[in-house]
Amino acid sequence: MYKVKLLNNISPSARTILTDDRYELSETVEHPDALFVRASDLHKYPFEKNLLCIGRAGIGVNTIPLDECAEKGIVVFNTPGGNANGVKELFLFALAMASREILPAMEWVKTYDGSQGPIEQRMEKVKKQYAGPEFAGKTLGVIGAGNVGSRVANIALACNMKVYAYDPYLSADAAWAISRHVFRVSDLRDIFRYSDYITIHTPLTDETRNMIDDKAIALMKNGVRIINYARGEVVNEDAMIKGLNDGKVARYVADFPTKRLIETKNTVLTPHLGGTTFESESNCARMAAKEMDDYLTNGNIRNSVNLPDVQLERSGASRICIIHRNLPGMLANMMPLFARDGINIENMTNKSRGSYAYSVFDVNTDVPEKAIQELNALDGVIRVRVL
Ligand SMILES: NC(=O)c1ccc[n+]([C@@H]2O[C@H](COP(=O)([O-])OP(=O)(O)OC[C@H]3O[C@@H](n4cnc5c(N)ncnc54)[C@H](O)[C@@H]3O)[C@@H](O)[C@H]2O)c1
Ligand SMILES: O=C(O)CC[C@@H](O)C(=O)O
Protein backbone atom coordinates (compact mmCIF):
# COMPACT_ATOMS: atom_id res chain seq x y z
CA MET A 1 0.00 0.00 0.00
CA TYR A 2 1.50 3.36 -1.05
CA LYS A 3 0.76 6.48 0.99
CA VAL A 4 0.01 9.72 -0.86
CA LYS A 5 -0.31 13.01 1.00
CA LEU A 6 -2.65 15.59 -0.54
CA LEU A 7 -1.24 19.08 0.01
CA ASN A 8 -3.97 20.88 -1.94
CA ASN A 9 -7.47 20.38 -3.17
CA ILE A 10 -6.97 17.62 -5.78
CA SER A 11 -9.79 16.52 -8.10
CA PRO A 12 -11.36 13.24 -6.94
CA SER A 13 -10.71 11.87 -10.45
CA ALA A 14 -7.21 10.97 -9.14
CA ARG A 15 -8.88 8.19 -7.17
CA THR A 16 -9.83 6.38 -10.36
CA ILE A 17 -6.07 5.77 -10.82
CA LEU A 18 -4.80 5.72 -7.23
CA THR A 19 -7.40 3.22 -6.11
CA ASP A 20 -8.20 2.37 -2.46
CA ASP A 21 -6.87 -1.19 -2.75
CA ARG A 22 -3.33 0.06 -3.48
CA TYR A 23 -3.21 3.64 -2.25
CA GLU A 24 -3.95 5.50 0.96
CA LEU A 25 -4.70 9.10 -0.02
CA SER A 26 -5.28 11.80 2.58
CA GLU A 27 -4.24 15.21 3.82
CA THR A 28 -2.92 13.79 7.07
CA VAL A 29 -1.15 10.58 6.06
CA GLU A 30 2.25 10.24 7.78
CA HIS A 31 5.58 9.37 6.11
CA PRO A 32 4.12 9.51 2.59
CA ASP A 33 5.69 7.84 -0.45
CA ALA A 34 4.32 10.63 -2.62
CA LEU A 35 3.07 14.21 -2.33
CA PHE A 36 0.19 15.40 -4.51
CA VAL A 37 0.26 19.18 -4.90
CA ARG A 38 -1.10 22.09 -6.89
CA ALA A 39 0.39 25.53 -6.40
CA SER A 40 1.58 25.28 -2.75
CA ASP A 41 5.15 26.44 -2.23
CA LEU A 42 7.41 23.55 -1.23
CA HIS A 43 10.68 25.47 -1.02
CA LYS A 44 10.77 25.10 2.76
CA TYR A 45 8.99 21.73 2.90
CA PRO A 46 10.67 19.16 5.16
CA PHE A 47 11.06 16.29 2.65
CA GLU A 48 11.37 12.95 4.43
CA LYS A 49 13.98 10.40 3.42
CA ASN A 50 11.39 7.86 2.25
CA LEU A 51 9.57 10.31 -0.07
CA LEU A 52 9.80 8.93 -3.62
CA CYS A 53 7.95 11.41 -5.80
CA ILE A 54 5.87 14.56 -6.08
CA GLY A 55 2.96 14.88 -8.49
CA ARG A 56 2.24 18.50 -9.48
CA ALA A 57 -1.30 18.64 -10.83
CA GLY A 58 -0.51 21.57 -13.12
CA ILE A 59 2.41 22.84 -15.17
CA GLY A 60 4.23 25.53 -13.17
CA VAL A 61 6.98 24.13 -10.96
CA ASN A 62 8.55 27.36 -9.72
CA THR A 63 7.07 26.42 -6.33
CA ILE A 64 9.13 23.21 -6.06
CA PRO A 65 12.89 23.02 -5.34
CA LEU A 66 13.70 20.75 -8.28
CA ASP A 67 17.44 20.37 -7.68
CA GLU A 68 17.02 19.65 -3.99
CA CYS A 69 14.46 16.99 -4.92
CA ALA A 70 16.76 15.37 -7.52
CA GLU A 71 19.60 15.46 -4.99
CA LYS A 72 17.34 13.56 -2.56
CA GLY A 73 16.13 11.07 -5.18
CA ILE A 74 12.62 12.53 -5.32
CA VAL A 75 11.14 12.53 -8.83
CA VAL A 76 8.94 15.55 -9.59
CA PHE A 77 6.19 15.18 -12.22
CA ASN A 78 3.95 17.80 -13.80
CA THR A 79 1.08 17.66 -16.30
CA PRO A 80 1.92 19.46 -19.56
CA GLY A 81 -1.17 20.62 -21.43
CA GLY A 82 -3.57 19.32 -18.76
CA ASN A 83 -5.03 22.75 -18.03
CA ALA A 84 -4.10 24.60 -21.23
CA ASN A 85 -7.65 24.70 -22.58
CA GLY A 86 -8.89 26.12 -19.26
CA VAL A 87 -6.38 28.97 -19.53
CA LYS A 88 -7.18 29.53 -23.20
CA GLU A 89 -10.86 29.98 -22.39
CA LEU A 90 -10.06 32.42 -19.59
CA PHE A 91 -7.80 34.31 -22.00
CA LEU A 92 -10.91 35.17 -24.04
CA PHE A 93 -12.43 36.67 -20.90
CA ALA A 94 -9.14 38.53 -20.29
CA LEU A 95 -9.14 39.93 -23.81
CA ALA A 96 -12.66 41.27 -23.30
CA MET A 97 -11.80 42.63 -19.85
CA ALA A 98 -8.65 44.24 -21.24
CA SER A 99 -10.75 46.08 -23.83
CA ARG A 100 -14.14 46.95 -22.48
CA GLU A 101 -15.39 48.66 -19.31
CA ILE A 102 -17.24 45.54 -18.24
CA LEU A 103 -16.41 45.63 -14.53
CA PRO A 104 -17.57 49.22 -13.86
CA ALA A 105 -20.63 48.60 -16.06
CA MET A 106 -21.53 45.53 -14.00
CA GLU A 107 -20.99 47.52 -10.82
CA TRP A 108 -23.38 50.17 -12.14
CA VAL A 109 -26.05 47.53 -12.79
CA LYS A 110 -25.57 45.92 -9.41
CA THR A 111 -25.86 49.11 -7.44
CA TYR A 112 -28.73 50.59 -9.48
CA ASP A 113 -31.49 51.33 -7.00
CA GLY A 114 -34.27 52.52 -9.33
CA SER A 115 -34.31 56.03 -7.88
CA GLN A 116 -33.52 57.48 -11.31
CA GLY A 117 -36.36 55.71 -13.08
CA PRO A 118 -36.62 52.37 -14.92
CA ILE A 119 -33.22 50.83 -15.61
CA GLU A 120 -34.09 50.21 -19.30
CA GLN A 121 -34.25 53.97 -19.89
CA ARG A 122 -31.39 54.97 -17.62
CA MET A 123 -28.92 52.48 -19.07
CA GLU A 124 -29.32 53.84 -22.58
CA LYS A 125 -28.01 57.14 -21.22
CA VAL A 126 -25.05 55.83 -19.20
CA LYS A 127 -23.72 53.10 -21.45
CA LYS A 128 -21.59 55.35 -23.65
CA GLN A 129 -19.11 55.74 -20.79
CA TYR A 130 -18.49 51.97 -20.89
CA ALA A 131 -17.36 51.77 -24.52
CA GLY A 132 -13.95 50.29 -25.36
CA PRO A 133 -11.99 49.09 -28.38
CA GLU A 134 -12.61 45.85 -30.26
CA PHE A 135 -9.62 43.56 -30.48
CA ALA A 136 -10.34 42.35 -34.01
CA GLY A 137 -7.81 43.95 -36.36
CA LYS A 138 -5.38 44.70 -33.51
CA THR A 139 -2.00 43.09 -32.90
CA LEU A 140 -1.49 40.55 -30.13
CA GLY A 141 2.02 39.68 -28.95
CA VAL A 142 2.26 36.23 -27.37
CA ILE A 143 5.32 35.61 -25.17
CA GLY A 144 5.82 31.85 -24.68
CA ALA A 145 4.11 29.66 -27.28
CA GLY A 146 3.87 26.30 -25.49
CA ASN A 147 0.68 24.48 -24.55
CA VAL A 148 -1.19 27.62 -23.49
CA GLY A 149 0.52 30.20 -25.73
CA SER A 150 -0.07 28.18 -28.92
CA ARG A 151 -3.78 27.78 -28.14
CA VAL A 152 -4.08 31.47 -27.26
CA ALA A 153 -2.31 32.48 -30.50
CA ASN A 154 -4.64 30.31 -32.57
CA ILE A 155 -7.83 31.53 -30.93
CA ALA A 156 -6.72 35.15 -31.27
CA LEU A 157 -6.32 34.54 -35.02
CA ALA A 158 -9.86 33.23 -35.06
CA CYS A 159 -10.88 36.55 -33.47
CA ASN A 160 -9.29 38.29 -36.48
CA MET A 161 -6.30 39.58 -34.57
CA LYS A 162 -2.83 39.81 -36.10
CA VAL A 163 -0.67 37.57 -33.93
CA TYR A 164 3.08 37.71 -33.21
CA ALA A 165 4.72 35.06 -31.03
CA TYR A 166 8.09 34.99 -29.30
CA ASP A 167 9.49 31.74 -27.91
CA PRO A 168 13.21 31.02 -28.30
CA TYR A 169 12.85 27.52 -26.84
CA LEU A 170 9.76 26.36 -28.74
CA SER A 171 9.51 22.55 -28.87
CA ALA A 172 8.78 20.80 -32.17
CA ASP A 173 5.42 19.59 -30.79
CA ALA A 174 4.40 23.13 -29.85
CA ALA A 175 5.55 24.44 -33.24
CA TRP A 176 3.25 21.92 -34.97
CA ALA A 177 0.33 23.19 -32.89
CA ILE A 178 0.66 26.82 -33.96
CA SER A 179 -1.10 28.15 -37.04
CA ARG A 180 1.23 29.18 -39.85
CA HIS A 181 -0.55 32.54 -39.82
CA VAL A 182 1.13 33.42 -36.52
CA PHE A 183 4.27 35.55 -37.16
CA ARG A 184 7.34 34.20 -35.43
CA VAL A 185 9.35 36.97 -33.75
CA SER A 186 12.97 36.42 -32.78
CA ASP A 187 13.52 39.68 -30.90
CA LEU A 188 11.34 40.13 -27.83
CA ARG A 189 11.55 43.91 -28.27
CA ASP A 190 9.48 43.57 -31.45
CA ILE A 191 6.65 42.12 -29.36
CA PHE A 192 6.90 45.18 -27.12
CA ARG A 193 7.12 47.64 -30.04
CA TYR A 194 4.32 46.40 -32.25
CA SER A 195 1.64 44.91 -30.00
CA ASP A 196 -1.63 46.52 -28.95
CA TYR A 197 -2.17 43.61 -26.58
CA ILE A 198 0.54 41.47 -24.97
CA THR A 199 -0.13 38.14 -23.32
CA ILE A 200 2.45 36.20 -21.29
CA HIS A 201 2.64 32.39 -21.21
CA THR A 202 6.17 31.53 -20.07
CA PRO A 203 7.19 29.64 -16.96
CA LEU A 204 8.69 31.68 -14.12
CA THR A 205 12.46 31.21 -14.43
CA ASP A 206 15.53 33.31 -13.69
CA GLU A 207 15.30 34.48 -17.29
CA THR A 208 11.61 35.44 -17.26
CA ARG A 209 11.43 37.01 -13.77
CA ASN A 210 10.81 40.77 -14.29
CA MET A 211 10.73 40.25 -18.07
CA ILE A 212 8.19 43.09 -18.19
CA ASP A 213 10.08 45.93 -16.51
CA ASP A 214 10.45 49.69 -16.99
CA LYS A 215 12.60 49.24 -20.08
CA ALA A 216 10.12 46.85 -21.69
CA ILE A 217 7.14 49.08 -20.91
CA ALA A 218 8.99 52.12 -22.30
CA LEU A 219 9.24 50.33 -25.66
CA MET A 220 5.53 49.53 -25.76
CA LYS A 221 2.78 51.46 -27.54
CA ASN A 222 0.90 54.02 -25.49
CA GLY A 223 -2.27 52.41 -24.18
CA VAL A 224 -0.95 48.84 -24.44
CA ARG A 225 -3.11 46.20 -22.75
CA ILE A 226 -1.24 43.44 -20.93
CA ILE A 227 -2.56 40.03 -19.93
CA ASN A 228 -0.66 37.83 -17.49
CA TYR A 229 -1.94 34.34 -16.82
CA ALA A 230 1.61 32.99 -16.40
CA ARG A 231 3.08 34.10 -13.07
CA GLY A 232 2.95 37.42 -11.20
CA GLU A 233 6.73 37.69 -10.89
CA VAL A 234 7.25 37.75 -14.68
CA VAL A 235 5.99 41.33 -14.46
CA ASN A 236 7.89 43.81 -12.32
CA GLU A 237 5.23 45.20 -10.02
CA ASP A 238 6.74 48.68 -9.59
CA ALA A 239 7.09 49.08 -13.35
CA MET A 240 3.52 47.90 -13.98
CA ILE A 241 2.03 50.20 -11.34
CA LYS A 242 3.98 53.13 -12.78
CA GLY A 243 2.84 52.24 -16.31
CA LEU A 244 -0.79 52.04 -15.20
CA ASN A 245 -0.62 55.28 -13.23
CA ASP A 246 1.03 57.11 -16.17
CA GLY A 247 -1.59 55.73 -18.58
CA LYS A 248 1.13 54.11 -20.71
CA VAL A 249 -0.50 50.77 -19.86
CA ALA A 250 -4.25 51.04 -20.39
CA ARG A 251 -5.08 47.82 -18.55
CA TYR A 252 -3.43 44.94 -16.75
CA VAL A 253 -5.44 41.71 -16.55
CA ALA A 254 -3.70 39.18 -14.34
CA ASP A 255 -4.30 36.02 -12.36
CA PHE A 256 -2.01 37.09 -9.52
CA PRO A 257 -3.48 39.75 -7.25
CA THR A 258 -1.35 41.66 -4.75
CA LYS A 259 -2.47 44.36 -2.35
CA ARG A 260 -0.72 47.06 -4.39
CA LEU A 261 -2.19 45.89 -7.69
CA ILE A 262 -5.68 45.69 -6.19
CA GLU A 263 -5.29 49.33 -5.18
CA THR A 264 -4.06 50.44 -8.63
CA LYS A 265 -6.42 51.74 -11.31
CA ASN A 266 -7.09 49.74 -14.48
CA THR A 267 -6.23 46.33 -13.10
CA VAL A 268 -8.52 43.32 -13.53
CA LEU A 269 -7.41 40.57 -11.17
CA THR A 270 -8.55 36.98 -10.72
CA PRO A 271 -7.36 34.69 -7.90
CA HIS A 272 -5.17 32.21 -9.85
CA LEU A 273 -8.11 30.73 -11.73
CA GLY A 274 -6.46 29.87 -15.08
CA GLY A 275 -6.55 26.10 -14.55
CA THR A 276 -9.61 26.09 -12.33
CA THR A 277 -12.19 24.34 -14.48
CA PHE A 278 -13.72 20.95 -13.71
CA GLU A 279 -12.08 19.54 -16.83
CA SER A 280 -8.60 21.00 -16.25
CA GLU A 281 -8.55 19.95 -12.61
CA SER A 282 -9.66 16.46 -13.53
CA ASN A 283 -7.16 16.16 -16.44
CA CYS A 284 -4.25 17.33 -14.30
CA ALA A 285 -5.18 15.13 -11.34
CA ARG A 286 -5.50 12.05 -13.58
CA MET A 287 -2.27 12.79 -15.46
CA ALA A 288 -0.27 13.30 -12.26
CA ALA A 289 -1.87 10.22 -10.67
CA LYS A 290 -0.94 8.08 -13.70
CA GLU A 291 2.63 9.39 -13.69
CA MET A 292 3.06 8.67 -9.96
CA ASP A 293 1.38 5.26 -10.24
CA ASP A 294 3.66 4.18 -13.09
CA TYR A 295 6.71 5.39 -11.18
CA LEU A 296 5.78 3.84 -7.85
CA THR A 297 4.69 0.53 -9.41
CA ASN A 298 7.06 0.16 -12.36
CA GLY A 299 9.80 2.76 -11.88
CA ASN A 300 8.88 4.40 -15.20
CA ILE A 301 9.31 8.17 -15.43
CA ARG A 302 7.11 10.24 -17.73
CA ASN A 303 6.78 14.05 -17.64
CA SER A 304 9.37 14.58 -14.97
CA VAL A 305 10.84 18.05 -14.55
CA ASN A 306 13.98 17.07 -12.65
CA LEU A 307 14.97 13.57 -13.84
CA PRO A 308 15.11 11.99 -17.29
CA ASP A 309 12.01 10.41 -18.80
CA VAL A 310 12.55 6.63 -18.87
CA GLN A 311 10.03 3.97 -19.84
CA LEU A 312 10.77 0.27 -20.15
CA GLU A 313 8.30 -2.58 -20.70
CA ARG A 314 8.48 -4.93 -17.72
CA SER A 315 10.32 -8.21 -18.15
CA GLY A 316 12.27 -10.55 -15.88
CA ALA A 317 11.65 -11.41 -12.23
CA SER A 318 12.63 -8.11 -10.59
CA ARG A 319 13.32 -4.55 -11.59
CA ILE A 320 16.17 -2.55 -10.08
CA CYS A 321 15.76 1.24 -10.41
CA ILE A 322 18.73 3.44 -9.59
CA ILE A 323 18.81 7.24 -9.45
CA HIS A 324 22.46 8.31 -9.59
CA ARG A 325 24.77 11.09 -10.56
CA ASN A 326 25.60 11.51 -14.22
CA LEU A 327 29.27 10.55 -13.89
CA PRO A 328 31.66 8.34 -15.88
CA GLY A 329 32.01 4.79 -14.57
CA MET A 330 28.69 4.58 -12.70
CA LEU A 331 27.44 1.53 -14.62
CA ALA A 332 30.91 -0.05 -14.55
CA ASN A 333 30.83 0.15 -10.74
CA MET A 334 27.40 -1.49 -10.55
CA MET A 335 28.07 -4.40 -12.89
CA PRO A 336 30.51 -6.36 -10.67
CA LEU A 337 27.88 -6.52 -7.92
CA PHE A 338 25.33 -7.96 -10.39
CA ALA A 339 27.89 -10.52 -11.65
CA ARG A 340 29.00 -11.53 -8.18
CA ASP A 341 25.42 -12.36 -7.10
CA GLY A 342 24.52 -14.14 -10.35
CA ILE A 343 22.04 -11.41 -11.35
CA ASN A 344 21.52 -11.57 -15.10
CA ILE A 345 20.24 -8.42 -16.82
CA GLU A 346 17.44 -9.26 -19.27
CA ASN A 347 16.76 -5.70 -20.35
CA MET A 348 18.00 -2.28 -19.29
CA THR A 349 18.01 1.42 -20.01
CA ASN A 350 19.99 4.40 -18.80
CA LYS A 351 19.20 8.08 -19.41
CA SER A 352 20.63 11.30 -18.07
CA ARG A 353 19.40 14.82 -17.50
CA GLY A 354 21.94 17.43 -16.41
CA SER A 355 23.81 16.23 -13.35
CA TYR A 356 21.51 13.25 -12.73
CA ALA A 357 20.87 9.92 -14.39
CA TYR A 358 18.46 7.02 -14.00
CA SER A 359 19.11 3.38 -14.78
CA VAL A 360 16.53 0.60 -14.88
CA PHE A 361 17.54 -3.08 -14.98
CA ASP A 362 15.09 -5.94 -15.47
CA VAL A 363 16.80 -9.01 -14.01
CA ASN A 364 16.16 -12.74 -14.00
CA THR A 365 16.07 -13.27 -10.24
CA ASP A 366 15.19 -11.83 -6.83
CA VAL A 367 17.76 -9.29 -5.67
CA PRO A 368 19.53 -10.09 -2.36
CA GLU A 369 19.28 -7.39 0.31
CA LYS A 370 23.10 -7.28 0.51
CA ALA A 371 23.36 -6.32 -3.18
CA ILE A 372 20.80 -3.56 -2.68
CA GLN A 373 22.76 -2.17 0.27
CA GLU A 374 26.04 -2.29 -1.64
CA LEU A 375 24.49 -0.61 -4.70
CA ASN A 376 23.14 2.09 -2.39
CA ALA A 377 26.59 2.59 -0.88
CA LEU A 378 28.31 3.16 -4.25
CA ASP A 379 29.72 6.64 -4.77
CA GLY A 380 27.27 8.71 -6.83
CA VAL A 381 24.23 6.49 -6.18
CA ILE A 382 21.30 8.49 -4.78
CA ARG A 383 18.49 5.95 -4.47
CA VAL A 384 17.97 2.26 -5.25
CA ARG A 385 14.54 0.64 -5.45
CA VAL A 386 13.71 -2.96 -6.30
CA LEU A 387 10.23 -3.63 -7.67
N1 LIG B 1 -2.94 30.97 -14.27
C1 LIG B 1 -2.94 29.66 -14.25
O1 LIG B 1 -3.73 29.04 -13.57
C2 LIG B 1 -1.98 28.92 -15.11
C3 LIG B 1 -2.37 27.71 -15.72
C4 LIG B 1 -1.46 27.06 -16.56
C5 LIG B 1 -0.20 27.61 -16.75
N2 LIG B 1 0.15 28.75 -16.09
C6 LIG B 1 1.48 29.34 -16.27
O2 LIG B 1 1.71 29.50 -17.64
C7 LIG B 1 2.96 28.96 -18.00
C8 LIG B 1 2.86 28.37 -19.39
O3 LIG B 1 2.01 27.23 -19.36
P1 LIG B 1 2.07 26.17 -20.54
O4 LIG B 1 1.15 25.07 -20.18
O5 LIG B 1 1.92 26.84 -21.85
O6 LIG B 1 3.58 25.69 -20.39
P2 LIG B 1 4.50 25.08 -21.52
O7 LIG B 1 5.68 24.51 -20.82
O8 LIG B 1 3.72 24.21 -22.43
O9 LIG B 1 4.96 26.36 -22.39
C9 LIG B 1 5.82 27.34 -21.89
C10 LIG B 1 6.54 27.93 -23.08
O10 LIG B 1 7.32 29.03 -22.63
C11 LIG B 1 8.51 29.04 -23.40
N3 LIG B 1 9.55 29.81 -22.76
C12 LIG B 1 10.39 29.46 -21.76
N4 LIG B 1 11.22 30.47 -21.46
C13 LIG B 1 10.89 31.48 -22.30
C14 LIG B 1 11.40 32.79 -22.48
N5 LIG B 1 12.42 33.26 -21.75
N6 LIG B 1 10.82 33.57 -23.43
C15 LIG B 1 9.79 33.11 -24.18
N7 LIG B 1 9.29 31.87 -24.07
C16 LIG B 1 9.82 31.07 -23.13
C17 LIG B 1 8.86 27.56 -23.54
O11 LIG B 1 9.74 27.35 -24.63
C18 LIG B 1 7.50 26.93 -23.76
O12 LIG B 1 7.19 26.81 -25.13
C19 LIG B 1 3.25 27.92 -16.91
O13 LIG B 1 4.65 27.73 -16.68
C20 LIG B 1 2.59 28.47 -15.69
O14 LIG B 1 3.49 29.28 -14.96
C21 LIG B 1 -0.71 29.42 -15.29
O1 LIG C 1 -4.51 25.89 -10.08
C1 LIG C 1 -3.41 25.36 -10.05
O2 LIG C 1 -3.16 24.31 -9.50
C2 LIG C 1 -2.26 26.07 -10.76
C3 LIG C 1 -2.44 26.10 -12.23
C4 LIG C 1 -1.30 26.75 -12.96
O3 LIG C 1 -0.77 27.83 -12.32
C5 LIG C 1 -0.24 25.83 -13.43
O4 LIG C 1 0.92 26.18 -13.34
O5 LIG C 1 -0.59 24.75 -13.95
Automatic annotation (TrEMBL):
<dbReference type="InterPro" id="IPR006139">
    <property type="entry name" value="D-isomer_2_OHA_DH_cat_dom"/>
</dbReference>
<dbReference type="Pfam" id="PF02826">
    <property type="entry name" value="2-Hacid_dh_C"/>
</dbReference>
<keyword id="KW-0560">Oxidoreductase</keyword>
<dbReference type="InterPro" id="IPR002912">
    <property type="entry name" value="ACT_dom"/>
</dbReference>
<dbReference type="InterPro" id="IPR029753">
    <property type="entry name" value="D-isomer_DH_CS"/>
</dbReference>
<comment type="pathway">
    <text>Amino-acid biosynthesis; L-serine biosynthesis; L-serine from 3-phospho-D-glycerate: step 1/3.</text>
</comment>
<dbReference type="InterPro" id="IPR006140">
    <property type="entry name" value="D-isomer_DH_NAD-bd"/>
</dbReference>
<dbReference type="InterPro" id="IPR029752">
    <property type="entry name" value="D-isomer_DH_CS1"/>
</dbReference>
<dbReference type="Pfam" id="PF22629">
    <property type="entry name" value="ACT_AHAS_ss"/>
</dbReference>
<comment type="similarity">
    <text>Belongs to the D-isomer specific 2-hydroxyacid dehydrogenase family.</text>
</comment>
<comment type="function">
    <text>Catalyzes the reversible oxidation of 3-phospho-D-glycerate to 3-phosphonooxypyruvate, the first step of the phosphorylated L-serine biosynthesis pathway. Also catalyzes the reversible oxidation of 2-hydroxyglutarate to 2-oxoglutarate.</text>
</comment>
<protein>
    <recommendedName>
        <fullName>D-3-phosphoglycerate dehydrogenase</fullName>
        <ecNumber>1.1.1.399</ecNumber>
        <ecNumber>1.1.1.95</ecNumber>
    </recommendedName>
</protein>
<dbReference type="InterPro" id="IPR054480">
    <property type="entry name" value="AHAS_small-like_ACT"/>
</dbReference>
<dbReference type="GO" id="GO:0051287">
    <property type="term" value="F:NAD binding"/>
</dbReference>
<dbReference type="InterPro" id="IPR036291">
    <property type="entry name" value="NAD(P)-bd_dom_sf"/>
</dbReference>
<dbReference type="GO" id="GO:0004617">
    <property type="term" value="F:phosphoglycerate dehydrogenase activity"/>
</dbReference>
<dbReference type="InterPro" id="IPR045865">
    <property type="entry name" value="ACT-like_dom_sf"/>
</dbReference>
<feature type="domain" description="ACT">
    <location>
        <begin position="319"/>
        <end position="387"/>
    </location>
</feature>
<dbReference type="Pfam" id="PF00389">
    <property type="entry name" value="2-Hacid_dh"/>
</dbReference>
<keyword id="KW-0520">NAD</keyword>
